[in-house]
Amino acid sequence: MSEYGIVLEGGAVRFERLLPGPIERVWAYITEGGKRSTWFCGGETEPLVGGKVALFFKHSEITDERPPESARKMNDEGAMMSGTVTAWEPPHRFAFNWVGMGEPDSDVEFELTKEGEKVRLVLTHRRLGTKARMAMVSSGWHLHLGLLEDQLNGSKPRGFWSKHEALEQDYAARQKHLPEPSGLA
Fold first, then answer.
1. How would you classify residue 26: left for phi > 0, otherwise alpha for psi between -120 and 50, otherwise beta?
2. Which long-range contacts (CB under 8 A, 24 or more apart) does 47-53 make?
3. Cα(60)–Cα(65) distance, rounded to whole angstroms?
4. For the whole model, what pTM was predicted?
5. How many CA atoms lie within 13 Å of 41's alpha carbon, on the beta-carbon side?
6. Which fold, 17-175?
7. Per-residue b or e along 50-76, where b marks 16 or more CB atoms closer than 10 Å to that residue's CB
8. CA-to-CA distance for 135 and 13, rounded, in angstroms?
């Protein structure tokens, strides 16, 4: 299984990971703000369809690496974004509409399936309006899912900022042949 996300259609990318279980533990790391803040972002989630999702990004909590100047404020002070729960099926499916990236809304879905003592995570992010946004979001998820894997394995967290720019450029090159997404706003 490749760590790289694959493009499903214009404006959508999917990632798969095989993670250590049990499934309830992986679910908690995706839906509980305190656990989620160790690999992605903090913030509470109302556990029902229509519930609010708070997404507080403060990357200094997930890496001690120095950020690029363009990300310094979010890294050091944090940035709040939000969403609305669109699917809540514990411990198998959690989806939300994401607002606040300075772009049109997008949709994120996590699906969890038991595979023996492991858990298959499938993350799909849809309605990404430009190729540049697809590359940025793809590289972000790639790195954040690596940090989730580190948390679940009890490993030292891998680098984030030291890999972000090169990985974003790699995704842009991988996606350059695609047409620009349209009609996603």
1. alpha
2. 47/85, 47/88, 47/90, 48/85, 48/88, 49/85, 49/86, 49/87, 49/88, 50/84, 50/85, 51/84, 51/85, 51/88, 52/82, 52/83, 52/84, 52/85, 53/82, 53/83, 53/84, 53/85, 53/96, 53/98
3. 8
4. 0.92
5. 21
6. Alpha-D-Glucose-1,6-Bisphosphate; Chain A, domain 4 (3.30.530)
7. eeebebbbbbebbbeeebeeebeeebe
8. 10
Judge whether 19 and 30 are in contact, CB under 8 Å: no
CB 123 within 8 A of CB 110: yes
- pLDDT, residue 74, reads 82
Q: What is the dihedral of CA 34, 38, 39, 45, to 10 degrees?
A: 10
Under a CB-based contact definition with an 8 Å cutoff, are residues 185 and 148 in contact? no
Whether 78 contacts 68, CB under 8 Å: no
Identify the segments of the chain with pLDDT beneath 50: 184-185
